[in-house]
Amino acid sequence: MHQYDLYGIGAALLDTEIEVTDSDLQDLGVDKGVMTLVDDSRQQQLVDDLKNHLVTASHACGGSGANTVIAASYFGLDTFYSCKVAADDNGDFYRDNLAAAGVAYPAVLQNADAGTTGKCLVLITPDAERSMNTFLGISAELSTAELDSSALSQSRWAYIEGYLVSSPTGRAAAIALREQAEASGVKTALSLSDPMMVQLFHDGLKEMLGNGVDLLFCNRDEALQFCGTQSLEEAAQTLRNYCNAFAITLGADGALLWDGEQEVRVAAPSIKAIDTNGAGDMFAGAFLYGINRDMGFAEAGELACRAAAQVVSQYGPRLRAEQHQALLAQSAKA
């Protein structure tokens, strides 16, 4: 009997979402559609330059891995999350947010170190694209000290956020988590997270993948970048060298899945996107819920596509608790 269905690891970031225009991005010198690591002064400069927009800002406990694990928890999985916050107001907010979502976390998180909890400034343009500027803060120091081997050994799945590749200690923690999971018979999943991470840290991601994970999540751009090709078909073949199964999200075109034996195409609902922040995280959370509850890849993929479509049709990287249950009810009727 497992205590947890899903054990995740990733950065703890307080997200601030702000609506901007493409000309704002150009004026600010922000790269569109990717995650850019910045220092505290650069992030504060952006906040100062956008002070007239802050009246419409929204805040949420975030980070890619956290979004996925929280979604899985709201769908109904028993979850655990390793991250690092500082002894500040944002750190308190973050822990409270995890607990409110039903996510357990290591005892070490209660004894936070001095510093600054990580922050992510998410700029949303009218085409629904999100451009992220992240100050990792104390998340850059996430290490094996934040792992809970007992909780991991009692989990069905371990989920690793690819963004950890940018931090030497975070990457080491991710590798240690994968190795411990493998030794304990816990299935492993990893997300490539962002095209910029793939471009800048390709070798580090390969190191995190080791001899291959059970399930790999990525979007089309990440798959092409990681495999060094412009062909989705070629990328799908190459990715099989790094995993036992994969899910490649294709935006409005749905998803391409491989369950280890056959490829499955899943369509996405037709919706008007207003904010793509968190779409991939939600897809992963819903998909992991599905396969934990014995859904086949096609059924899990359909649920994940509907959940991701719901996220991009509203502002913010996550859904309200009751929206997850409504999505499950749709699956039951299908």
Structure description:
This protein has 334 residues and is of the alpha/beta class. The chain has a single domain, classed as UDP-N-acetylmuramoyl-L-alanine:D-glutamate ligase (3-Layer(aba) Sandwich), CATH 3.40.1190.20. It is 41% helix and 21% strand. It is built from 13 helices and 14 strands. Strands 6-5-1-9-10-11-12-13-14 form a nine-stranded mixed β-sheet. A five-stranded mixed β-sheet has the order 3-8-7-2-4. β5, α4 and β6 form a beta-alpha-beta unit. α12 (297-312) crosses α13 (321-333). The longest helix has 17 residues, at 168-184.
List keywords for this structure.
334 residues, alpha/beta, five-stranded mixed beta sheet, UDP-N-acetylmuramoyl-L-alanine:D-glutamate ligase
